[in-house]
Amino acid sequence: MNNINYLAFAIPAFFIFLYMEYAIALHLKKGHLFKYESSVSNVSIGIAERLLNLFIAASFYDLFYFVYKNYALFNIPNVWWVWAILILATDFVWYWYHKLGHQVNFLWAAHIVHHQSEEFNLSVSARITTFQALIRNIFWCALPFAGFHPAMVITILTVHGAYSFFTHTQLIGKLGWLENILITPSLHGIHHASDDKYLDKNYGDVFVFWDKLFGTFQKEEEAPKYGLTHPIKSYSFLWQHFHYYFELAEACKRENGFKNKLNIIFGNPATLNQDIRPILEKRFLQHKSQDRYRFKFKKYLNFQLIVCIALLTFTTAFFGSLKLDDKIFIPLFLLITLINCGALLEQRRWIYYLECLRLILVFAYVFFKFDLLGLIFLPTISLIILERTFALSHVYRVYVLQYETIMSKHSPTEINIAHDSVINNKNKLYTDEKIESK
Ligand SMILES: [Zn+2]
Ligand SMILES: [Zn+2]
């Protein structure tokens, strides 16, 4: 384990900044800028992207070199002023990648995840999916194609990527004359707003020039309302990633003819049938908890997230030294845990089976390391016996899936009804499960 990837240190640094922003907000009595569920889902999405990025980053570096060696239009030298042109060129490519990401359905399906949060704080910067990273890397190929050396491109992309982290906060406000040059937190906040006058504005990442040039610039006037025009109201890790792909598939299914289906895939998101999502929500989210109560047992969820962050940092630092079995186990374990975290917030009834799957996966990994994989039937059978003898799934649901009512929005009567509803729901789950097991 000699080759440490020092980018791993960016992960704890990211969480230190997150904590600092939260501490300052509390000090300024602005704790309402944060919501626990929202922060968990932002961080979960970021962890998955950073992890999967480890597996694809090298391929894209190779692709940049391939494009540069075979197709570069110009032979651009490595001199100081080229760096200035490169940062402008990078921002220009970003502008079009980002604008198309909002205007073409199949690109929006990946980018929508970045806009799902109704809070706007530093943790939102982590809402990048692997699909979006893939699309972005394809756009970045334009830079080596123009003739910029891939080593320069990769260096600039690191700086460019780090800048956008700091534009996701409400604590900084407007920055005077800098608002005319840079995309500031106020200007990027407008990009995350769903108010009519703010829609489809401020696509730039570092500079405002491109928005001003192409007519998409908008400064902050009234306080923005953050999030999507049609909020998804779900913290499910899977639903947040895939709901728009399902919506597109359903819209295509309803169309006759290949050309009409293509029009959906390449069409503008504003023209997609808005009735489709509620239908899919009924189909896929029927066991979703109501807004009026929320997950209480946060320590268990926090512990899982801390394990994920530690594992991600370790994997990033030592990725080059990991063996194939580690590279299979770690992503599987992390993804199951992130799905679990989203499912805990959403009271999903299948979560117990996910816990069992993860437990068996851990045993399989440990047994494999000690060359005892044949013994994997032992924990599997033990879980089945425990379920049959002690109704373990019921015990899990009663003790782990604890909910509290949200006091501020409802009268005491409503809270009692909500509480009864949770109890009834738990009893129903138990009854359903008994019926299923018969
Ligand atoms: Zn966007
Ligand atoms: Zn953003």
From TrEMBL:
<keyword id="KW-0472">Membrane</keyword>
<dbReference type="GO" id="GO:0050479">
    <property type="term" value="F:glyceryl-ether monooxygenase activity"/>
</dbReference>
<keyword id="KW-1133">Transmembrane helix</keyword>
<keyword id="KW-0560">Oxidoreductase</keyword>
<feature type="transmembrane region" description="Helical">
    <location>
        <begin position="328"/>
        <end position="345"/>
    </location>
</feature>
<protein>
    <submittedName>
        <fullName>Fatty acid hydroxylase family protein</fullName>
    </submittedName>
</protein>
<dbReference type="GO" id="GO:0012505">
    <property type="term" value="C:endomembrane system"/>
</dbReference>
<dbReference type="GO" id="GO:0016020">
    <property type="term" value="C:membrane"/>
</dbReference>
<feature type="transmembrane region" description="Helical">
    <location>
        <begin position="6"/>
        <end position="26"/>
    </location>
</feature>
<keyword id="KW-0443">Lipid metabolism</keyword>
<feature type="transmembrane region" description="Helical">
    <location>
        <begin position="80"/>
        <end position="97"/>
    </location>
</feature>
<feature type="transmembrane region" description="Helical">
    <location>
        <begin position="300"/>
        <end position="322"/>
    </location>
</feature>
<keyword id="KW-0812">Transmembrane</keyword>
<dbReference type="GO" id="GO:0006643">
    <property type="term" value="P:membrane lipid metabolic process"/>
</dbReference>
<dbReference type="GO" id="GO:0008610">
    <property type="term" value="P:lipid biosynthetic process"/>
</dbReference>
<dbReference type="InterPro" id="IPR051689">
    <property type="entry name" value="Sterol_desaturase/TMEM195"/>
</dbReference>
<dbReference type="GO" id="GO:0005506">
    <property type="term" value="F:iron ion binding"/>
</dbReference>
<dbReference type="Pfam" id="PF04116">
    <property type="entry name" value="FA_hydroxylase"/>
</dbReference>
<feature type="transmembrane region" description="Helical">
    <location>
        <begin position="47"/>
        <end position="68"/>
    </location>
</feature>
<feature type="domain" description="Fatty acid hydroxylase">
    <location>
        <begin position="83"/>
        <end position="216"/>
    </location>
</feature>
<dbReference type="InterPro" id="IPR006694">
    <property type="entry name" value="Fatty_acid_hydroxylase"/>
</dbReference>
